[in-house]
Design brief:
alpha+beta; TolA/TonB C-terminal domain; Serine Threonine Protein Phosphatase 5, Tetratricopeptide repeat; 3 domains; five-stranded mixed β-sheet
C-alpha cells in the first residue's frame, strides 16, 4: 500500500483547532497509526511509490541524525570516558508538539539532561510530528527514543568541496599585516564604490569568507550580499579580497601554518551629497541592530525584537537583519512570523546561509 497521506490534511491535523475538538487527555501506548516526525525531505509527495514504512524509516533515520548533530557531549561524561545509550520518553500531542520529556535510562555524566535539552530545543525550533491516530482522531501517545552517546576525537579540520583541509581548530588565527587597524585601513582606502551606481545611494554590507592558505595566499570560499547590492558591488569586494593576498600571516596549528577561513565584511556607502540621508538611515539601522543583539544576549528578546523592527523600517531588505529578527521570533515561539522573514531572505538572496534551519522550521 502506498503512503498517500495528503499534505493539506497534515496541516489541518496540526492546527490548534484539533485541541478544542478532542477532550481525550489519555496518553496511549498503542494506536492504529504511530506518530511520525514531519521532515520535509521524507514527505511522500517527494518520493512517489514509497510505502508508509519507507517514509517512516526515512523520517526516523533523519531525526536521529539531526539529534546526533545537535548533542553537546557533556564535559563530565567526556572526562570520565562515559559512553552508551540514553533512553528518552516523551508524549506527542495532537498538535504535533512534544511534552513530558523523561529519561528512562541514563549513563550519567550529564548525558540524560543533554538528551532532554536537544529534544526540547528541536521542538522549540519548530520540529513537529504527525500525531498518533485512534478511531480516526489524533490522540496523545508516548514515544520512546534511544540516543547513543559515543566519544570520538573530533578532527581539527574539514575537507572542503575542492579537497582542501580547512582547519577549524587552530592555535592562532590569521593576522593581517598591521593587525586589525591595518585591515581596516586596507578596506577603507582600497574599496571603491562602483562609479555607475554612485547616484543610486545603495548602502549595504558584503561579507566574504576568505580561506587564508599556509603561504598567505587567499581563496574566496563564500560571499553574502546582505542588501542585494548586485554584481558590480560583489566584483569590487572580490577584487579587493584578492588584493589582500600575501598580506596575511597564516593560522598556526601545532607549530605549522595551516589553511583556515575568516570572515571579512565590506561596507559600501556612496559619497554623493544626495546620499547623506540613505547613509544615515543605514548607520542608524546598524546601531539599532547592535543594541538589539545586546538585549537578546541578556534574554530581553521582546525589547530586542522592537529594535530589529525599527532597524528594518530603516533598511527593509537587509537579509542579515531579517535573519536576526526571525531568530527572535523563533525564541518567542512565533514560528509563522519567523518563517515569513526566513522566506523573504530566500527570495532576496536566492538561497540562505542557514538553509538547514529554515527547512527544519519552515519546510521545503
Amino acid at each position: 500500500m502506498k503512503y498517500t497521506f495528503p499534505i493539506a490534511l497534515l496541516l489541518v491535523l496540526l492546527n490548534n483547532a484539533i485541541i478544542a475538538q478532542s477532550a481525550d487527555t489519555t496518553i496511549y501506548e498503542v494506536a492504529e497509526r504511530l506518530p511520525l516526525p514531519l521532515l520535509m525531505s521524507c514527505q511522500p509527495e517527494r518520493h512517489p511509490g514509497w510505502t508508509e514504512d519507507s517514509v517512516r524509516r526515512c523520517a526516523e533515520a533523519q531525526l536521529l541524525t539531526i539529534v546526533a548533530k545537535n548533542i553537546r557531549y557533556p564535559e563530565e561524561a567526556r572526562q570520565n570516558n562515559l559512553e552508551g545509550t540514553v533512553v528518552t520518553s516523551f508524549v506527542i500531542e495532537p498538535t504535533g508538539r512534544i511534552s513530558g520529556i523523561k529519561i528512562l535510562k541514563d549513563i550519567g555524566g550529564g548525558c540524560g539532561p543533554e538528551a532532554a535539552r536537544v529534544l526540547q530545543a528541536l521542538d522549540d525550533a519548530g520540529l513537529r510530528w504527525l500525531p498518533a491516530m485512534r478511531d480516526g482522531k489524533p490522540v496523545r501517545m508516548r514515544q520512546a527514543m534511544p540516543l547513543r552517546f559515543r566519544l570520538q576525537e573530533a578532527l581539527p579540520y574539514f575537507i572542503n568541496a575542492t579537497g582542501d583541509s580547512i582547519y577549524v581548530q587552530v592555535d592562532s588565527m590569521p593576522n593581517f599585516e598591521g593587525g586589525e587597524e591595518g585591515l581596516l585601513d586596507f578596506l577603507l582606502n582600497g574599496l571603491h564604490y562602483p562609479t555607475a551606481y554612485r547616484d543610486s545611494c545603495k548602502t549595504g554590507i558584503i561579507e566574504l569568507a576568505l580561506v587564508i592558505r599556509p603561504d598567505g595566499q587567499v581563496d574566496i570560499e563564500d560571499q553574502l550580499d546582505f542588501s542585494g547590492l548586485g554584481l558590480d558591488f560583489q566584483f569590487e569586494a572580490i577584487r579587493l579580497a584578492n588584493r589582500s593576498a600575501g598580506k596575511w600571516i597564516p593560522a598556526q596549528y601545532q607549530g605549522r601554518p595551516v589553511a583556515t577561513s575568516v570572515p571579512v565584511r565590506m561596507l559600501f556607502k556612496s559619497d554623493r551629497p544626495g546620499c547623506k540621508a540613505a547613509n544615515e538611515a543605514f548607520d542608524q539601522a546598524m546601531l539599532l541592530s547592535n543594541e538589539a543583539a545586546a538585549l537578546s544576549s541578556n534574554n530581553e528578546v521582546e525589547q530586542a525584537l522592537e529594535k530589529w523592527n525599527q532597524a528594518l523600517a530603516l533598511h527593509p531588505d537587509n537579509s542579515e537583519l531579517l535573519y536576526f529578527r526571525a531568530s527572535a521570533f523563533l525564541s518567542l515561539d512565533k514560528r509563522e512570523a519567523a518563517c515569513a522573514d526566513f522566506s523573504k531572505v530566500k527570495i532576496l538572496m536566492g538561497t540562505t546561509w542557514f538553509e538547514p534551519l529554515r527547512r527544519l522550521v519552515c519546510g521545503w
